[in-house]
């Protein structure tokens, strides 16, 4: 072997050794060291919680390590997001992010305690979710037009619930108020289930939320679906009109679910997680539970694709927040 080739080989080997040494010890044997925490920033039973528990079980099986779901609700996901933003970037803390935590909150909250871009590493876009307009079946309205008429004539009915200030369900209500020209009072909750309970009892007039979370109460007749917020009708409720069909032109939105890790988490871990999640979302039982049964449009992206989505969603929702005038301290 000539001197030049020996030198090149030595440089290559040195680079390989340096690369191995540069890889954090936590990444070298990840995830063998300890269980992984999957933080859900909303209450048990909501869409983010359902997604998190499905992924936790499946990831645990595939990675041969326990993945434990921790619910840390509050501040439209901000409490859980702040917790994860401060966690060690070692691959042992994951976050169930949403359109709220990683797009809307950036412009809605005046003093946000985390930065959705600077404090997190994108892992994978899990799914898009249709939102629906829900009311108490005993409210006496059978269409969006009926609801608008009620809100215009009866000030005592001008309330809407959401799963928290700053969530997509909150912004949907603000958009609706602006489009119909009726001032409405927002009633925020610490998650979807308690909000739906109060809407189903008539304590709050209406709410927008994901179809996934609404299904159980719709199936038992405790809630009534008036319309969907997507561009087209959805397979789970083909009889329900879109908001545009129901007489609110230009009203269109969909929520999304994603997985993140603390900033600085090694890229090999991020890529491994994204690859495993993409495979999980193709499994028949997951397709059945999250796709067919709950109406989610499953994706399973790369970290880069999720980063690109955020780059378009953050400014888009900033414009929505500006037009609606919504602000949260």
Automatic annotation (TrEMBL):
SUPFAM superfamilies noted in UniProt: Periplasmic binding protein-like II
Protein name: Extra-cytoplasmic solute receptor family protein 59
PANTHER family: BLR1237 PROTEIN, TRICARBOXYLATE-BINDING PROTEIN
UniProt entry keywords in alphabetical sequence: Receptor, Signal
Coiled coil: none
Residues of the signal peptide: 1-27
Gene3D superfamilies reported in the protein's UniProt record: Bordetella uptake gene, domain 1, Periplasmic binding protein-like II
Family: Belongs to the UPF0065 (bug) family.
């Amino acid at each position: 072997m000539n001197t030049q080739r020996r030198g090149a080989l030595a440089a290559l080997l040195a680079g390989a050794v340096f690369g191995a040494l540069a890889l954090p010890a936590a990444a070298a044997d990840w995830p063998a060291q300890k269980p992984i925490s999957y933080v859900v920033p909303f209450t048990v039973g909501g869409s983010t919680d359902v997604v998190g528990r499905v992924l936790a079980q499946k990831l645990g099986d595939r990675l041969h390590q326990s993945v434990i779901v921790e619910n840390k609700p509050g501040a439209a996901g901000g409490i859980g997001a702040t917790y994860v933003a401060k966690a060690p970037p070692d691959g042992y803390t994951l976050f169930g992010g949403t359109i709220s935590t990683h797009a809307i909150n950036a412009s809605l909250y005046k003093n946000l305690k985390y930065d959705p871009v600077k404090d997190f590493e994108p892992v994978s876009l899990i799914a898009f979710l249709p939102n629906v307009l829900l009311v108490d079946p005993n409210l006496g309205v059978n269409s969006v037009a009926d609801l608008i008429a009620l809100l215009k004539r009866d000030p005592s009915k001008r309330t809407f619930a959401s799963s928290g200030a700053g969530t997509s369900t909150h912004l949907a209500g603000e958009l609706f108020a602006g489009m119909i020209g009726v001032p409405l009072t927002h009633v925020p909750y610490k998650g979807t289930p308690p909000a739906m309970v109060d809407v189903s009892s008539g304590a709050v007039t209406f709410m927008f939320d994901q179809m996934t979370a609404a299904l159980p109460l719709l199936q038992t007749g405790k809630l009534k679906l008036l319309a969907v917020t997507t561009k087209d009708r959805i397979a789970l409720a083909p009889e329900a009109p879109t908001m545009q069909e129901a007489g609110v032109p230009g009203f269109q939105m969909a929520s999304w679910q994603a997985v993140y890790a603390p900033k600085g988490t090694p890229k090999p871990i991020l890529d491994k997680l994204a690859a495993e999640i993409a495979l999980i979302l193709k499994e028949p039982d997951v397709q059945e539970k999250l796709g067919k049964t709950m109406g989610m449009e499953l994706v399973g992206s790369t970290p880069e694709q999720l980063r690109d989505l955020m780059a378009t969603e953050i400014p888009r929702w900033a414009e929505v927040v500006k037009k609606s005038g919504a602000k949260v301290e």
